[in-house]
User: What shape does this take?
Amino acid sequence: MHHDLSASLAFPSEPIVFVDLETTGATFGVDRITEIGIVEAGPSGVSQWTSLVNPQKPIPAFVQQLTGITDAMVRDAPTFEQLASGLLDRLNGRLFVAHNAHFDHGFLKGEFRRMGLRFAPDVLCTVQLSRAVYPAESRHGLDALVERHMLVPSARHRALADADLLWQFWQHLHRANAPDVMRAHLDRVTRRFQLAAHIDEDTIEQIAAGCGVYMFYGDDDAPLYAGRSVRLRQRVRSHLVGPRRSAKDLRLAALVRRLEWRGTGGEIGALLAEAQWIASARPAHNRAPKSRPGDVRGAPWPYAGAIAIEERDAASGQRAWHVIDNWCYLGTASALGQAGALHASADSPAFELSTYRILSERIARGLAVTPLGCGTLASTV
Assistant: This one.
């Protein structure tokens, strides 16, 4: 769900939650939540919710002094596990707004994950929003916002009071800026974690950062689009999120239901795998390859048998061997021995024009290859 963030000054058309946490410290996975405060704004108005949380560990003295939350105060408070179900209902489907949102979102995501619950809202950081709207200002902490915009704190370093300051800041921004200006700022700084259908930020983070290929699938698992990149994770994300997407990307993202990807160990591997994937799956949004001057269908193969082309991925440092025989790409292996096995298990290779196009010039210019078969693995140039 994408939220119409600037539909109305006080009451957005979709509910938004302004969230603040107090914790025993700043380390994910080690420290725990001691208090949660939420201000929800939506079509029906504004509501508030807060609870102390038993962190099931001592609160350091300096944190007790900063927040005023003591061990005695949280001793009889509910644990996060006891609050989790109701809290998830309260937050799910709403834009998550917080100051230094990486902190609050990260803590909640970690707590929910410990219980086997998925938490992936769209996230808006008010520090980033303040920087976008007021680029000439150097300070964007909550105290600076209170001073600069005359916000009215009911307390400081308590969760609900700080969440209410964010709601006050939101209202100030919408009073001070035209709706189209605010919409542009909000679109630019909002992180979309639910990107397309069942693809979310967690899915994207699992994609290799370096060279590879990807395929988007639509309804009924129909292939939509295959692509390649030397920065695979970044390229896939760029299709699905961000204000600078092309009209083509926007149309495509609306159709995507799932994706597949493969690391290829290098740019040549990505070119080979993409071409073969397009030829075999015929994705609806890829252009059919056109004939070019210089295409030689059935061109003679310049080697006695199969070869392997070695590449090293600059992002991961991993090596890969691409196996080719008779201008036919047989696949990629992570070790030279596996490349030989890949060749041995392959069917009789059939000439592929796309592989010929990708490799013929490179081979003519002296691309280093390793012959496979006949018990020899000697490098030739």
